[in-house]
Amino acid sequence: MQRTHTQEYPHQANEAVLWKAFKEGDRAAFAELVELYYPQLLNYGVRFQRDREFVKDCLHDLLLELWNRRQRLDDVHVVKVYLLKSLRRKVLKESTRLKWFREAHEVSDDYAFEVQFAIETYLISREVQHEDLVRLRTRLERLTKRQREAIYLRFYQDLDYDAIAGVMSIQVHSAVNLVYEALKLLRRNWFLSLLIWILPLNP
Amino acid sequence: MKNYSQFDTEDFVQDPYFRKWVLGKLPPGDSFWPTWQSAHPGRQEQLEEARSLVVALQPDDRPADPDEVRLAVQDIMNDLDDRRRPFPLLRIAAGLLLLAGLGWWVWTALLPPGSREEVNRSALPRKIQLADGTRVTLSPNSRLKISEHYGQKKREVSLTGEAFFDVVRNPEKPFLVYAGNLVTKVLGTSFTIRATDDRVSVAVRTGKVTVYRTEKKPGSALSEEMILLPNQQAVMEKASLVKTLVEEPVLLESPVERFAETPVNEVFHRLEKAYGIRILFEEDQLKDCNFTATFTRESLFDKLSFVCETIQARYEVVDGQIVIDGAKCR
């Protein structure tokens, strides 16, 4: 069951080379960096703000700012983490402005993070009856947006706990806790091993 | 190499190399995990459980469209030099202008105006003209907000209450109306929006309109879009978005008034054309039905009732179209 995947995570050495070249004003290197990270950044951004065009505008501005500020940038170790963090800040900031404009009422500084995991889609689409599964579903529904974001960053963006803490601006131990709570939820459910045969792999 | 034989389920789940295998992200030649699996039959259970967990926690969505990404990257690369130093220059210019003693009103004339709000508290509709010539007729007790960036990349407004929009065509700068949790997007056309607290409707007069939700519906990863044509209407109520027809469809071209022993199929075709609304019926079923009448100023729905009564049929509005259900005539 070998599936080909279009986007292979780059080797970090290669990433560092590209970043260095970009800082020296190499357009081709910049284009390559952008191409490499754009799909993942977009995927992350639309979870805070479902207006896709809006997120693309934010990304556009963010990446242009990056190019213009290239000489003043630090040598970041993990480019992706830096970009995810910057995008997060930008989308949340711009969304607040946008929300003020679109909606008459005051907005809180609360944010949304929308993601549905494969297991949830499965449980919802099958309208499961088994009481263990129903219990699992209600518990999954109670995952907080912070937990969801941490799990998403861990298992989809493949970040380690230091990076998650960096992106979300939280302590490392909090990042660990957020992910562990969710794992614990699923862990004891022996029937999960049956689900693997039914759940489709992420395309 | 890590000592995988000491690993528990948890450790496998947290291991990047293991996750890549489960998600099919390893290069095709890499057979480490299948080999390890068969060498450690005792760890079968942990391995399976860990695999389930990894799969279960993948976000459920579609990958980005490669074309979308390619275009976006191109856009960024094209803009690299344009915006290199607009800000310092603008600031210096601003300083100079002020120093030169030019009045601040010069600024208001040169720079795009800030976000502005129009409220109609009168009992009569109020006509408003926007910077690009787009005309808005704002109904009583309604409010229109115009984005401070109106006309730059997009033309954005937000509405509470009711308004009729006659939008000047500009494919470069889409016109967007935010009302309740619906977004209406057009390039140039005319339409009416009614937005109350629990119901939003968008009715199209001319052109083509795209409507989508601003809030996500549980269970769907992407926002659903609905395309509306003249005389069609989108209604958002109790979190469901339905396509239907406007209450009073208008004629798009000169009416057909007179029918004399006309085959009913032709009657439907001519109504379809006059109102630009799709009418679905079984050609074969109705081929022997004829219709004679002279229409004056009846509404489309009155005309339809009249025809249907004559041929013993019924009509229904489904998804912004009309469906005729009738039996053979003899």
From TrEMBL, chain A:
Pfam families: Sigma70_r2, Sigma70_r4_2
Biological processes, Gene Ontology terms: DNA-templated transcription initiation
InterPro entries xref list: RNA_pol_sigma-70-like, RNA_pol_sigma-70_dom, RNA_pol_sigma70_r2, RNA_pol_sigma70_r4_t2, RNA_pol_sigma_r2, RNA_pol_sigma_r3/r4-like, WH-like_DNA-bd_sf
Record's keyword terms, sorted: Sigma factor, Transcription, Transcription regulation
GO molecular function: DNA binding; sigma factor activity
Domain RNA polymerase sigma factor 70 region 4 type: 134-186
Domain spans labelled RNA polymerase sigma-70 region: 33-100
Family: Belongs to the sigma-70 factor family. ECF subfamily.
Name of the protein: RNA polymerase sigma factor, sigma-70 family
TrEMBL record, chain B:
GO molecular function ontology, one term from the record: sigma factor antagonist activity
Residue stretches making up the FecR protein domain: 126-209
Residue ranges of domain Protein FecR C-terminal in the record: 259-324
UniProt KW Transmembrane keyword: yes
Transmembrane regions listed in the UniProt entry: 89-107
Keyword vocabulary terms for this entry: Membrane, Transmembrane, Transmembrane helix
PANTHER family to which the protein is assigned, alphabetical: PERIPLASMIC SIGNAL SENSOR AND SIGMA FACTOR ACTIVATOR FECR-RELATED, PROTEIN FECR
Protein known as: FecR family protein
